[in-house]
Write a structure and sequence with these properties.
The chain is built from 14 helices and 6 strands. It is of the alpha/beta class.
């Protein structure tokens, strides 16, 4: 913040979008779960939104690409899901820019209302797959190091299928990701093998730096977005706060790109819910600590008793 503020005024933002690889049945469950759970979040019926309601933390759902005819929540729908990255780039350049700008503008909107701490969540079946693709393309890590079970059962045959899918996607797109400029390379990676949710979170995180507002990373998907953001603007490391250490395999690699090691992450609970459950718990911890810091008595006060 550059100063000691009297209190924390948080806003939790959940970016929701579908992924083409999931809609065509290559990974995960029925893609309609994304729109059903997004509607459920609006009603406060999900884990993350229950956390928000209990802790009096405002939240919103931003539709940047749900495969539904109508907009769900804040309607910034770019398209009804991305394309299947096994055969096509996930999104066109203008679609990437629209998703990125949607994230950036939500931060600007809330900064103007006095919000001084942001946290991010996401919803979208198949997004641990797209995140693994992005992370491997960004860092050169082998898919065996970045692919975790996501919402699948953790079984060797299913994991092999997912790893093979990610490896095929990387082979398909590697020749198209060739910019020498690091910011351009990151944009190409997300546009070719990522998701609208990742693009929007990327825009939101970079906006936080521009407006000098700290933000809380949630789990694997938001950690990958933070890794991408760091490659565009290294000052991300000054504003990104970890919350929980996701059990998704690529978490360590993603957080390392942001300069965060496992011992720096407060919540070690083997969670992998998404939506921002860990981030919201961290926001409440920060609110509690901040309240104590600005209100606790001094040693001199103590000695007068």
């Amino acid at each position: 913040w550059g100063e000691i503020d009297g209190d924390i005024r948080p806003q939790h933002i959940i970016f929701s979008a579908d992924n083409g690889c999931n809609m065509e049945g290559y990974v995960g469950y029925n893609y309609e779960v994304t729109q059903k759970q997004s509607r459920n979040m609006l009603l406060g019926g999900s884990s993350a939104t229950q956390f928000c309601n209990f802790n009096n933390i405002p939240y919103e759902v931003v539709d940047v690409g749900i495969a539904s005819d109508d907009g769900i929540g804040v309607n910034r729908k770019v398209a009804k899901g991305t394309k299947n990255i096994l055969n096509h780039p996930a999104m066109a350049d203008d679609e990437f820019n629209s998703a990125f700008q949607a994230g950036y503008e939500r931060i600007q909107h809330y900064v103007e209302q006095g919000i001084n701490l942001f946290s991010f969540g996401e919803m979208g079946l198949g997004n641990t797959t797209t995140s693994a693709c992005v992370l491997s393309a960004l860092t050169g890590a082998d898919p065996t190091e970045t692919v975790g079970p996501g919402s699948w059962p953790d079984k060797p045959d299913l994991m092999k299928r997912k790893i093979d899918f990610v490896r095929s996607v990387l082979d398909k797109h590697k020749a198209s990701i060739d910019s020498e400029s690091e910011p351009d390379r990151v944009r190409e990676i997300v546009a070719h093998v990522g998701g609208f949710d990742i693009a929007a979170i990327l825009g939101a995180m970079l906006a936080c730096v521009d407006f000098e507002k700290p933000f809380v990373i949630d789990g694997f998907i938001t950690s990958v977005a933070a890794a991408c953001a760091t490659h565009i603007n290294a000052r991300i490391k000054d504003y990104a706060l970890p919350s929980h250490y996701s059990k998704e395999k690529g978490t360590e690699i993603a957080l390392a790109e942001v300069g965060i090691t496992q011992d720096m992450v407060p919540i070690q609970a083997h969670m992998s819910m998404g939506e921002g459950t860990g981030a919201i718990l961290m926001v409440q911890m920060l609110k509690t600590t901040q309240h104590m810091f600005v209100n606790v008595g001094t040693f001199a006060d103590l000695m007068k008793l």
